[in-house]
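[step 3/7] fold_predict: job queued, chain A
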Amino acid sequence: MEFAITVPALFTGSDDSWQQRARSFLFADAPAILWRSRAACQIGEELRLTLIAIFGAVGTLARYGLQGLVQIRIGSTFPYGTLLINLTGCFLLGLIGQFTLNRMVISPDWRVAIAVGFFGGYTTFSSFGWETAK
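[step 4/7] structure written:
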């Protein structure tokens, strides 16, 4: 219920800009252990979003190249390229997730960039749905 109570406060007419109100709403309840200050958090968030965008582009290009290669080699009407990409992507995401959480020391920004960015671009369910409908 807190969301329903506090969101209208973001859009009331006050002297602050809507960005400042949104920032204060989003980061007001964050534990101090996660973010030292709002400025440090904002810089970290910009880096995280940049990494996600870069890794997403790389994942999309990897998907496009591998899918095209598989479809040219097999030459079937069934989307084997999409099947291979979704299977390998899910397997690798689980494998990397397991190793980065338990064994390897990788910062959360890089984990998010790999998991959300690369594998988000690499394994898109919408492509599977589109090719199945064709």
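[step 5/7] annotate
The radius of gyration is 20 Å.
The CA atoms of residues 45 and 109 lie 9 Å apart.
exit 0
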